[in-house]
Write a structure and sequence with these properties.
Layout: E1 14-18, H1 47-59, E2 64-68, H2 78-86, E3 93-98, H3 103-112, E4 117-121, H4 127-134, H5 138-151, E5 156-162, H6 171-181, E6 184-189, H7 194-200, H8 207-217, E7 220-222, E8 232-236, E9 242-246, E10 259-262, E11 267-269, E12 277-279, H9 281-285, H10 290-301, H11 321-324
Parallel strand pairs: 1-2, 1-10, 2-3, 3-4, 4-5, 5-6, 6-9
Antiparallel strand pairs: 7-8, 8-9, 10-11, 11-12
Helix pairs in contact: 1-10, 2-3, 3-5
The structure holds S-adenosylmethionine (SAM) and iron/sulfur cluster.
Iron/sulfur cluster is lined by residues 23, 25-27, 30-31, 69-71, 99, 121, 321-322.
Length: 326
């Protein structure tokens, strides 16, 4: 089988596909409140271009794609794109990261289009705090999550970015909420990506502390979840619930990194924590052949650095998470 192997011997079989850099929320660690400096529509890869690039990745061994952003549901007709990608014969897993604000309207059609599982951001269950943290309405997100549950996505993973003295008092409540609804819960350490990520990192909290705290209230046993990501899981005994810990700061997982990111303007970013990138859009629009596109993707993969430098060099990444595709 064809495989993309980078210069450090890692097999790259997973693409995070950002379908837009726009978003209807402004999470405090991600995007500034007044931010409007988005890519113009003429710079967005069209659905034809996206399908062509992802099909090329699948010929080179990619088996999993996650659609993300920005908020992917802000991109019009996302369901059509999902149906086109899930029809690619070699793609085994198409998933979606969303803030769930628009999930109530789209859950069933996205499921029918071939998205099997979703990750949804939820940093607080307190409507006032949620509003302060994101600018949005908690109620809409909860409606979206219930619609996703109804539509049958499995699993539904809740992503909670933890910040000291902001939402770390809610971890037990969030576990209870996930037990009640059958959701997987993942805690994420704040990363110094862009100005907002760096500012939020002032409230960084090491997830080892949270693990110890949760073990006092819940019986936690080793767990596993499918998905190919970096989370390490513990299962809450006597439930079906897994709790994942994503620790890019306290215990990085670069040695097993299996992914690259494709941004909405057609740039391949080979690492969330570095600037190495390769612009595909000019080549696509200049009429590059399929063979040349394959060679170009191989060249881009060779740019993948060994590891991020969030701890040694936190000033390094200027892009917001929503720009690269989280
Ligand atoms: N809008 C969608 C959402 O919120 O799930 C998808 C894009 S968002 C950029 C993807 C993930 O990145 C979310 O789980 C979000 O919490 C996370 N994220 C954004 N900025 C972050 C940061 N500075 N540190 C850690 N996680 C971050
Ligand atoms: Fe939007 Fe997701 Fe960034 Fe929040 S984390 S501002 S929902 S892109």
């Amino acid at each position: 089988m064809t495989q993309l192997i980078d210069q450090f011997g890692r097999s790259i079989d997973y693409v995070r596909l950002s379908v837009t850099d726009r978003c209807d929320l402004r999470c405090s660690y991600c995007m500034p409140k007044q931010f409007r400096d988005f890519h113009e529509p003429e710079d967005w890869l069209s659905f034809d271009e996206i399908e062509r690039v992802i099909a090329t990745f699948t010929r080179l061994g990619t088996r999993r794609v996650r659609m993300t952003g920005g908020e992917p549901l802000v991109r019009k007709n996302l369901t059509q794109l999902a149906a086109r990608l899930s029809a690619l014969p070699q793609l085994e897993d198409l998933s979606l990261s969303t803030n769930a604000t628009r999930m109530a309207q789209h859950a069933q059609e996205l499921k029918d289009a071939g998205i099997s599982r979703i990750n949804a951001s939820l940093d607080s269950l307190d409507p006032i705090k949620f509003k302060q943290l994101t600018g949005g309405k908690l109620e809409k997100v909860l409606e979206g999550l219930m619609a996703a549950k109804q539509a049958g996505f499995k699993p539904i993973k809740i992503n909670m970015v933890l910040m000291k003295n902001i939402n770390d008092n809610e971890v037990e409540n969030m576990v209870d909420f996930c037990i009640e609804h059958g959701f997987t819960l993942r805690f994420i350490e704040t990363m110094p990506v862009g100005d907002m990520g760096r500012k939020a990192s002032e409230n960084y909290i090491d997830l080892q502390l949270i693990k110890t705290r949760l073990a006092k209230r819940f019986d936690l046993i080793p767990g596993v979840m499918p998905g190919g990501g970096p989370a390490r899981y513990l299962k809450v005994a006597d439930t079906d619930i897994n709790i994942g810990f994503i620790t890019p700061m306290s215990q990085h997982f670069c040695a097993t990194c299996n992914r690259v990111r494709l941004s909405v303007d057609g740039t391949i970013y080979t690492c969330l924590g570095q600037e190495h990138h390769f612009e595909l859009r000019p080549l696509l629009r200049a009429g590059i052949s399929d063979h040349e596109l394959e060679q170009t993707i191989r060249t881009a993969i060779n740019l993948k650095p060994e590891k991020h430098e969030f701890n040694e060099n936190p000033e390094k990444v200027l892009r917001f998470m929503s720009y690269t595709g989280g």
